[in-house]
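About this split. The held-out portion is used to measure sequence recovery: a designer receives only the structure tokens and must propose an amino acid at every position. Recovery is the fraction of positions where the proposal matches the reference. Here is one held-out target exactly as it appears in the evaluation file.
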């Protein structure tokens, strides 16, 4: 009889122990789950805060860009809407010195290293002023310049050296520098060599002009982490 009572007590103790273990395991699971969930919520809250901050910054920048764009449009219209361009020509004409100020600016400082276009421009200048062209030489460095522009991104004017050979008389030799000086495109004469007689001179002009790489609009995508 005593043995039966001890066995019943042992069974009850084992059940109590099992219940306690299950209770502790359940409590531990709830605590761990709560900690993991709390950490996930904190991380998500931090991420959402970063996203909201980035969006607010983007909105501010967009509003500033819109204001700047409106100012730029107004300034451009005023720049090209003058009754006379910056070199005294007709903005609506088709002559050598005509065209609006935007066209004059692009003609003066092209956005690419284009030597064939430069040679055509020099040829037009010389033929218009009755010079006999012997040669127009230079370096067609467009590929290298475009590669350097992509790597470095210069915005300052970049020199384009060239050499012109022309035949004229003494009076034409004297006016050649003025001809280059009056050109829409900036030309800096570095040397002028002449050979022959007063009535038949061979001129060799070493000079440099410029182009200015265009500034591109770089739109970037930002990943919020």
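Reference sequence for scoring:
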């Amino acid at each position: 009889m005593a043995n039966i009572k001890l066995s019943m007590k042992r069974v009850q103790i084992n059940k109590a122990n099992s219940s306690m273990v299950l209770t502790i395991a359940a409590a531990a699971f709830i605590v761990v789950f709560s900690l993991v969930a709390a950490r996930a919520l904190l991380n998500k809250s931090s991420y959402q805060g970063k996203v909201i901050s980035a969006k607010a910054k983007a909105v501010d920048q967009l509003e500033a860009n819109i204001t700047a764009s409106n100012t730029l449009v107004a300034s451009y219209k005023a720049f090209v809407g003058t009754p006379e361009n910056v070199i005294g020509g007709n903005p609506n004409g088709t002559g050598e010195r005509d065209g609006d100020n935007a066209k004059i600016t692009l003609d003066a400082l092209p956005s690419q290293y284009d030597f064939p276009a430069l040679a055509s421009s020099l040829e037009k200048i010389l033929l218009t002023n009755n010079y006999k062209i012997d040669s127009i030489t230079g370096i067609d460095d467009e590929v290298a310049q475009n590669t350097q522009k992509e790597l470095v991104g210069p915005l300052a004017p970049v020199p384009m050296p060239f050499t012109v050979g022309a035949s004229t008389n003494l009076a034409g030799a004297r006016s050649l520098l003025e001809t280059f000086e009056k050109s829409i495109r900036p030309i800096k004469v570095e040397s002028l060599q002449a050979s022959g007689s007063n009535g038949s001179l061979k001129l060799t002009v070493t000079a440099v002009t410029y182009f200015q790489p265009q500034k591109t609009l770089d739109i970037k995508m930002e990943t919020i982490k």
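Annotator remark: The beta strands are 132-138, 158-168, 188-197, 200-211.
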